[in-house]
Amino acid sequence: MSDHDYKPKSKVGQWFNDRLPLLTLANHLTDYPTPKNLNYWWTFGGILTFCLITQIITGLTLAMHYIAHADMAFESVEHIMRDVNYGWLIRYIHANGASMFFLAVYIHIFRSLFYGSYKSPREIIWILGIVIYLLMMAAAFMGYVLPWGQMSFWGATVITNLFSAIPLVGEGIVTWLWGGYSVDNPTLTRFFTLHYLIPFLILGLVVLHIWALHVPGNNNPVGIDIKKPSKDTVPFHPYIVIKDGFALLMFMIVFAFFVFYTPNILGHADNYIEANPMVTPAHIVPEWYLLPFYAILRSVPDKLLGVVAMLSAILILAALPWLDTSKIRSAVFRPLYKQFYWILVADVLILGYVGAMPAEGLYLLIARVATAYYFLHFLVILPVLGFKERTLPVPLSITEPILGGSPNLAAARHRESKIK
Amino acid sequence: MSDKKPKRREFLFTATTAVGAVGAAAVVWPMVDQMNPDASVKALASTEVDVSSVKPGNTITVLWRGKPVFIRRRTKEEIEEARSVKMEELIHPEKDEDRAKNPEWLVMVGVCTHLGCVPLNDKGDYNGWFCPCHGSHYDTSGRIRKGPAPWNMEVPKYEFVNANTIKIG
Asked: Could you read off the pLDDT of B137-149 as tens digits, one per residue?
């Protein structure tokens, strides 16, 4: 990168940049050499930044009208919906924005899984991403508690009770989290405080995530190291900016569809009933984006082990760069991994489905099989595959197969050899 | 330690670090402890309930420390069912005699010991309670019989102030 050579054109710019090199940073971000073959799966980083900013802005405006008190929270949310100018719009954007955020983050994560973006030298980017994902779940969970509806209250009760599974100190921790002997006003006020704080922590981590990304540069669909800048790269601006912008526009259409046409489809009707500590709703189901982990929790018949399994299912991702022993990044050149990848996608979708269903009979059996397979994928299949799999020849550069007449020469060669 | 005498500077480093650590801990503890139940929450620690209107086979639910407490006036059959169970069959063995000193009255915190939902009355495979969240079945003594909950529903400290009034807490 030629950042160090950058010199602002104007005298004032030079004077300023010598004292605070913001213009150098702006120049780095503009000229940042990006692989020229990035497909639309790579646009979700930008989309996620948009989601975070949207949540922060709508959240700030909601906080101007919301009252974090057990007696007034539910009413103040209804006040936002009915009385506050455009309150309904802001709240629906914020509520659906959480779902859109998770939709985008899941695509972003599965993009990494397919193209091996978590592998050396990008492990720190990946781990920062997992920390962001954990914080997102914490923020989403606490945010869901704030309207103080039935699902808010009982969701908070069930999730905080997960800590009671810890031997000896569990009960003490739960009381400490609640600030009482049940979920009540002290719980609500601290959740509001943390819900307000976490997005800014995420913002800080996003800066580190991008910083760590800009050290080795982007991975790409071919998954090879490329020279930068070279024939294989294009400057971030305008090429990637325009592509990201177009993808964002498409994403916003989906977003707007939910906000304007079915703003409550992703929520639960029970949450429009005010919290009642005497009655538990018949079916407690978390938001859709937590369902796979909920299914894992319920598939283990023991309380402590269920919680351990659920947490491991998330934390195992942090170890992924070392569990995947293959030197080849992209699944394009890993015929076996590609199949296991899609099985994993199906497995997670199945877990999500059974997570929404009652934990009994066939659903429970499916949840158990799917949970076992989830861990099998990461703990057995990935480490073994790295040694056993016969990978396809990888091109020397992004440009090479294109000049060779095929967008994926190596794959074409492979197919030819099979025919012969 | 070697026979070399520690230097003045090393001593100062260690002493400063130790004092600093103690100071930091002294500041951290109030920050942590402020989240524990406060004086006003603790002050609500007991509740008196008039149970004169409860008929046999009925349950009333009262709020104690923000949690529901079930007070059930059990029928003869229920008492018999609860007392005839063998200890070996129980996940968390407790005698019904210990859980309900006065066999007619069962007083317990109506919170599932799995993840804190409120179980439903007169439901489940053991004619007691059933938790809708993750399917735990409790018997007529509030003991866990089937499902993911690890313990029986908790019996709080309570006493009969007079024939019609129970004081919980």
From this structure: 999 999 999 888 8
Spatial separation of the C-alpha atoms in residues B99 and B141, rounded to whole Å:
7
| A152-177 tens-digit pLDDT | 999 999 899 889 889 999 989 999 99
Chain A touched by B114 (CB under 8 Å): yes
What is each CA distance from A224 to A120, A403, A410, in whole angstroms? 11, 17, 13
Tell me the whole-structure pTM to 2 decimals.
0.89
Whether B169 has its CB under 8 Å from any CB of chain A: the answer is no
The ipTM, to two decimals, is 0.79
Minimal Cα distance from A176: which residue of B? B36
> Is B37 in CB contact (< 8 Å) with chain A?
yes
**B134 among known catalytic residues:** yes
Q: Which helix (H) or strand (E) holds A168?
A: none
Does the CB of B67 have a partner CB in chain A at under 8 Å?
yes
Q: Which of A148, A151, A182 to mutate to test the interface with B (most CBs of B within 10 A)?
A: A182
- The answer to whether A133 touches A105, Cβ cutoff 8 Å, is yes
DSSP H helices in A303-419 = 303-315, 320-323, 335-356, 361-376, 382-388, 399-403, 409-419
The 8-class DSSP code of residue A180 comes to S
| Chain A residues touching residue B131 (CB < 8 angstroms) | 280
Q: What are the residues whose beta carbons fall under 8 Å from the beta carbon of A216, sequence distance 6 or more?
A: A121, A122
Alpha carbon distance A350, A47 (integer Å): 26
Contact, A97 vs A50, CB < 8 A? no
- DSSP symbols for A7-28: --SSHHHHHHHHHSTHHHHHHH
Tokens of residue A301, six digits: 């018949």
- In Å, how far is B69's CA from the nearest CA of chain A? 9
Q: What is the DSSP string of chain B?
A: --SSPPPHHHHHHHHHHHHHHHHHHHHHHHHHHTTS--HHHHHT--EEEE-TTPPTTEEEEEEETTEEEEEEE--HHHHHHHHHS-GGG-SS---HHHH-SSTTEEEEE---TTT---PEET-STTSSEEETTTTEEE-TTS-EEESS--SPPPPPPEEEEETTEEEE-
**Phi, psi (5° rounding) for residue A213?**
-70, -40
Q: pLDDT of A397-416, one tens digit each?
A: 888 776 665 555 555 566 55
Strand partners for B105: B73
